[in-house]
Write a structure and sequence with these properties.
With about 300 residues, this protein is of the alpha+beta class. The protein has 10 helices and 13 strands. The protein has 2 domains: about 190 residues, Alpha-Beta Complex (Nucleoside Triphosphate Pyrophosphohydrolase), CATH 3.90.79; about 110 residues, Transcription Regulator spoIIAA (2-Layer Sandwich).
Length: about 300
Amino acid sequence: MKSLLEILREHFLDVEHLEKFYRFCVQGSSQTFGHISPLLRQKIIWNPDHWEICDIERTLTLRGTSCETRNTIILTTLALPENMVVLGINSLSEDTFAVYNHDKHVVMQIPRNAAPLFGVLCYGVQLVAYELCPSATTTLLTPDSRVWVSRRSILKNYCPGLLDVTASGALEAGESPLDGILRESLEEASLSDTVLHGRLYPSGVLSYVGRGGGEYGEGHVFALPEIDFCYHVGLAPGVAPVPMDGEVKYFALLTVSEILGRLRRSEFTPSATCVLLDFFIKRGILSFENEPDYIEIVTRLHRGLPYPTL
């Protein structure tokens, strides 16, 4: 069985690995907005009227001085039939990820299912719900404490059928993290604002670079940088999440010990793995005394990222 650190190394990139990628830039700015794999730099058709490529400095610069112009160029590039084939998508999603500069202004919006192409920083919200113990005198958990996990629908594009946290999803453009987690909790788990009010605990953020691109063959890697806003909530016995929007097949109460075993068997999504490890660290399950890779695990959950952030 793999160690927890081995699982993290398997699913996530070291930030230093990004030096092998092309920096995604925009005209008139020195900021880095994403990282594009060398494979896609070669396979995608980049119209020279819209893109400036420097192989020496490993930069791919989007021309255009306004958000609207950049959005149009991105959609035009992605809509080329040859590029759609390379990306393995039939259509572009209507949902978009907003890309921000250091002044926290939106510089462009990218269709959600095309974000891996540009390696742009995406934001998510994550909820871990656990069963409250009426006799507990502390917020720390024990190996027998129980946590609500979800089984993802097999129809999901990302990690179909794997285990996940209670509720999670992408933060929509212009949406606050609190509004995002309330929306996802209701849509995925039928947990209303009334149920969560006064119980929802914001537990900080996680930052990491996911590893994608395996569908293009061994050795081809995409950078998937992400920042997750995490929340915890204790639910009284008898209060249970219920699937609503079809993205979750079912919910189950698993003990901490069961979850740790399934994490080591790679039964959870990569992002859920990070969120649950962070949850167990903050709730006293994992510590320096019982986890030999404790410091490196904590460090890998909070990577410094070379992008402008919210």
